[in-house]
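Sequence dictates fold. Next comes a concrete instance:
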Amino acid sequence: MEYTKPLAELTDFFQRFPGIGPKSAQRLAFYLLKMPLSDVEKFAAKMVEAKTTIKCCSLCFNMSASDPCEICSNQNRDKSVICVVAETKDLIAVEKTGEFKGVYHVLQGVISPIDGIGPSDIRIKELLSRIASDNVQEVILTLNPSVEGEATTLYLAKLLKPFNITVSRIALGIPVGSDLEYADEITIARALEGRRKI
């Protein structure tokens, strides 16, 4: 059965979002059609507002409506510790813990030669500039344990060595609630490497 053209186009548009397949796109389209027109108009206005007002912070490259962003402009943050993340969504994940009180640097990607992304395509130069000019004592590399994340971590660790600062990385290991028997060897090895005294 063919959909009416506006519904088909709406469904196709939803399919452009990451992780949204044909069935999910169809559900979203029908849900939107059932919403009151006033809610749809508010939703559309919020999308346009977000797209036009959210930019990158000129200091850390976090996505924010203000420049500098809320974190960089917060005087209570410890500016001597920088947590390096790949994307703003990673920054949000770290912030949700409530444990980190320093500032961030968002690389806006990771080194991925297969995708044509090299060191000059992400915000490495700006990170080095911040470390050289600010009184930075520690850089925490908080990148995903993927092949690209590992490559970027190793590359950054090498570049940061001459600065004579502490360079650390987050511990990787067994998720809470999982069983050791189902963990792969690399995960268990990383958990052992990241062990600490109790």
Q: What stands out?
A: The chain has two domains: 5-53, 76-193. Residues 77 and 101 are 5 Å apart (CA to CA).
